[in-house]
Amino acid sequence: QMVLNMLAGGAAINVLAKHVGADLQVVDIGVADPLEGASGLNRKKVKAGTDNISTGPAMSEEEAIQAIQVGVDLAKGAADDGVTLLGSGEMGIANTTPSSALYAALIPCPVIEVTGRGTGIDDDGLQHKIKVIERALEVNNHLLTDPLRTLAALGGMEIAGICGLILGAASRRVPVLVDGFISSAAALVAIRLRESVSDYLFFSHCSAEAGHRTFFDRMAIRPILDLDLRLGEGTGGALAMQVIEAAVKIYNEMATFDSAGV
């Protein structure tokens, strides 16, 4: 329903994208529903949902590569069309869980430091979530030998796609505004795969999700905004686009002391 709402123009990201003059593209890489009849959807489905990470890998390595390639192709296509700034965003259910698992594996750090309440679970739910992630790390431990295999074992299709978007954009020297908790997990995978991509990343905001600040502290990254956002969809990235554009205008158009005779 959330995907259909985005396609109908009724989601928060639709409002903010229109406000900042950004084009919005909704891409299905791994939605479980077939979304039959959904108009305007970019259909790139690799798999109809991922598998249970607490019992085994989320996807195969081949599926992870396919999802990454979707993102790479999207970024390169945008660059070919003259796009000079990309923003990441996602719509997923329960995807703070695989994101926390990826943070714990790739930072690395204890699960409790990067696990929060997501959509608002209670204390018992949070403890269960932590245990599920710890079990996922234990069950898949033999697969966590490199960033790609770690992504396949613990991640989601949307995370793999955003990882690919970042890799593809960096290959064309196009900067990416990374959205929130889930997008930052994808960025972490991309950085672990190719450290140089960090030169093309702006992190739009620190979200309210517990663990996002841990990521920024551990990676020595300073996000642009800190507003306790917790929506995802790319909304933080859209808000930060105007900050980036303002900075570029100041750099290009503001008089220097010398030119102003100061």
Number of beta-strand segments: 5
CATH class: Alpha Beta
Which sequence of strands runs across the widest sheet?
Answer: 3-4-5
Indicate the percent of residues in helices: 40-55%
What composes the largest sheet? 3 strands, parallel
Q: In percent terms, what proportion of residues is strand?
A: under 5%
Query: Looking at the structure, what is the overall shape?
Result: globular
Mean pLDDT score: 96
Radius of gyration over alpha carbons? 18 Å
State the separation between the terminal residues, measured CA to CA.
58 Å
Order of helices and strands: HHEEHEHHHHEHEHHH
Can you walk through the features of this model?
The chain has a single domain, classed as Nicotinate-nucleotide-dimethylbenzimidazole phosphoribosyltransferase (CobT), large domain (Rossmann fold). The protein is mainly alpha-helical and 262 residues long. The mean pLDDT is 96. It has helices at 2-7, 12-20, 61-80, 96-106, 123-139, 147-154, 157-171, 181-193, 212-219, 235-253, 257-260; strands spanning 27-28, 42-43, 86-87, 176-178, 201-203. Helix 4 packs parallel to helix 8 (181-193) and helix 7 crosses helix 8. It is built from 11 helices and 5 strands, in the order H-H-E-E-H-E-H-H-H-H-E-H-E-H-H-H. The chain has a 3-stranded parallel β-sheet, with helices on both faces.
